[in-house]
Amino acid sequence: QVQLVESGGGSMQSGGSLRLSCAASRLPVNYYHIGWFRQAPGKEREFVSCIGARDGTTSYEDSVKGRFVISRDTSKNTVYLQMNNLKREDTAAYYCAADGGILGRTCSSSSGEYEHWGQGTQVTVSS
After folding, report:
1. Which tens digit of pLDDT belongs to each residue from 24-80?
2. Nearest-CA neighbor of 91 among 117, 121, 52?
3. How many CB atoms lie within 10 A of CB 24?
4. CA-derived radius of gyration, the chain
């Protein structure tokens, strides 16, 4: 069955970096839009970044622009989220998700468009 497995989370001080990985099974990452979302305690899940299926077009939430970079390695069927200059407000559980409805549109910031989700990986940033 389709599976998305996140890894790379952990604890980091402000200003540090982490790279999250989203390894996909039975789901070619260049045939799906792949998104990263995060959810902090007591808050709703929010969009972080996504990468488009065909041309790899990327999109970022405003607060992470210039700090986070999404990329993919099709040989490893994995999507990455490089997170630099981490801030306390980046503390959250991070989830990757896949959207197979790619025809005619770019990757979406709406979680409702994504039908496959990973189990999440925790990122904790301290000052």
Report:
1. 999 999 999 999 999 999 999 999 999 999 889 999 999 999 999 999 999 999 999
2. 121
3. 23
4. 13
Place 117 in a pLDDT band, splitting at 50, 70 and 90.
very high
b/e map of 60-96 (b: 16 or more CB within 10 Å)? bbeebeeebebebeeeebbbbbebeebeeebbbbbbb
Q: SS3 letters for the chain?
A: CCEEEEECCEEEECCCCEEEEEEEECCCCCCCEEEEEEECCCCCCEEEEEECCCCCCEEECHHHCCCEEEEEECCCCEEEEEECCCCHHHCEEEEEEEECCCCCCCCCCCHHHCCEECCCEEEEEEC
The torsion region of residue 8 among left (phi > 0), alpha (psi -120 to 50) and beta comes to left
User: Which residue, 82, 75, 70, 69, is CA-closest to 33?
Assistant: 70
The C-alpha atoms of residue 29 and residue 32 are separated, in whole angstroms, by: 5
Phi, psi (5° rounding) for residue 115? -100, -15
